[in-house]
Each structure stands twice: as C-alpha cells, then as structure tokens.
C-alpha cells in the first residue's frame, strides 16, 4: 500500500524548467533492432539535477521509515504476486499528483507528438485506431514506484501493460522511467535494455542521473539488466490519457 505520510520536500521543489534538457530518439535501425522501426522511445537528459534526485529518494524513504518492500509482478485482474525469478528488487510506492505534475512539466515540451494519439495503432492498439478515437494526454499517473536494485538484482524481459483507472475514464499508453543515479564507479550494470524477440540483439539505455526514458507500452520487449555492483535507483510511472468526446 502507498504511504499516507507527508514527505519533507520544499513547496518549490521541481519548480521551473528542466536544468539541461536534451532529447535523443532511440534509433532502432542503427541500434540493430530494425523490427521496432516506427515504435516510440525517447531519452530526455537533464530533466532533474543530481541534488533533486537525492532529495526524491530521501523523501520516498521518509514515507516508509526507510523500508523498501519487495517488488511484485502484475498478474492481471488488479492482482500482484511475488516472482523473484522474474523481478528481484526493492520498491517504495508513493502517490503524489502535484509532484508528478511538476516532473511532467519539465518533460512535456520535448515530446509534443504524444499529446494526442490519433490513428496510431502501434501505441493504442487496432481498436481505437479503427474506431477513429482520439486519446488526449491527461497527466502522469500519481503512483510513483521507486525501485532499488542491488547486486545480482534485475527485472527479466517483459512488455509493459496498459493501466486503466477503476472508473475506466483514463488509460496509460507510455512508460516513464527517471534514473535517480548513474552508472560509473559506484554502479556497474543495470541498464534498461530493449531486446529482439529472439533475445539475440539489444539496445541498452545506461542509467544516468536525471535522465528520463519514455517508451510506448505495446510491443517493446525490455528488461532491467542485472546490477553487477552498487545500487541502481529509479522512479517509474505511466503517462495517462482520456478519450476525446465528439
């Protein structure tokens, strides 16, 4: 369950634009995964400073008195189960709509093409495209999942699933990962890796502090690589959409 405790962040935390925004599109052809051509994945660097990342981690830990539960796997029907052969890491769940709104405000201008989804079956599925539906970006999901991977911890290859709100008024189509620390002397391994479906080829996105990785849920097989040394810290949430009315 998400904690109801209040994290100790200054009210101006994350106010203002990204400190050093730079967009890079994942190049499937150049990276050796041409079968993913046309699928959407973007890297935004310089979204959050290292100090802000440290503050986020400290605030998340304050909501649970420093305790990290074991992350579970969605098994459908709104249920989860612990399968550490698939997913092995720590997790803190923290709901804060105002905070994620500020995070998205730093990202939004760099990815205007996902504000409205029209005739984009690779993202929405064939049904919405055939029905000529328009889906408009509404917000980031308030549910932040902070993840902590230690040595030999991982998340095996999988595709992300769509989340629909209980009242069915919103659904997610994209994943957002914010890396809260980076690979280097203290952290070895832990890349987010996109895989070919035969697992023979891959593109690796290396953790970098303040980096955001955005990608569509549908069709992108990916994993959190084993951590070889140190700790990998990330924040994951979803981009939510509402269907436009006539």
TrEMBL record:
Obligatory cofactor(s): L-ascorbate
Protein name: Oxidoreductase domain-containing protein
Record-linked Pfam families: 2OG-FeII_Oxy_3
Cellular-component GO terms for this entry: endoplasmic reticulum
Entries under PANTHER family matching the protein: FE2OG DIOXYGENASE DOMAIN-CONTAINING PROTEIN, PROLYL 4-HYDROXYLASE ALPHA SUBUNIT
Lineage, top ranks: Eukaryota, Fungi, Dikarya, Ascomycota, Pezizomycotina
Superkingdom: Eukaryota
Domain Prolyl 4-hydroxylase alpha subunit, first and last residues per copy: 39-240
Molecular-function GO terms, alphabetical: iron ion binding; L-ascorbic acid binding; procollagen-proline 4-dioxygenase activity
Species whose genome carries this gene: Lophiotrema nucula
Keyword annotations from UniProtKB, A to Z: Dioxygenase, Iron, Metal-binding, Oxidoreductase
